[in-house]
Amino acid sequence: QLQLVESGGGLVQPGGSLRLSCAASGFTLDYYAIGWFRQAPGKEREGVSCISKGDGSTNYADSVKGRFTISRDNAKNTVYLQINSLKPEDTAVYYCAADTMFSICVLSDEYDYWGQGTQVTVSS
């Protein structure tokens, strides 16, 4: 059974950092494009970063460029999202998603498989 499990969220002060993990089971992440999305209360889900299968090319939303870094550890079958210089507006539930159809990953939510999400709260 294909499953994605996010972890690493929590409460952090503005300016702090977190590393979110997206662990896959039942399939090999390297054969899938992986996207990270977030949804804040009352707002639509937003794609923040993605990594393509194969060459591992990455893409970021303008709102997170320079602060977020996506990476993949094939040995652990896990994708990470390093989040630095956190701002209160980064507060949201963060989800990872996977799809095998995209040659180049996309930030739209057209992914087939989704995790349950992990809460990130940025507050002093």
Silhouette: globular
Radius of gyration, taken over Cα atoms and rounded to an integer in Å: 13 Å
Instruction: Let me know the largest β-sheet.
Output: 7 strands, mixed
Strand content: over 45%
Number of helices: 0
Compute the number of strand runs. Answer: 11
What does this structure look like?
The mean pLDDT is 96. The protein is built from no helices and eleven strands. It is mostly beta strands and 124 residues long. Strands 2, 4, 5, 6, 9, 10 and 11 form a seven-stranded mixed sheet that branches. It has strands at residues 3-7, 10-12, 18-25, 33-39, 46-51, 58-60, 68-73, 78-83, 92-99, 113-114, 118-122.
From the structure above, extract its key features.
124 residues; mainly beta; 11 strands
Question: Quick recap of the structure?
Answer:
The chain is 0% helix and 48% strand.
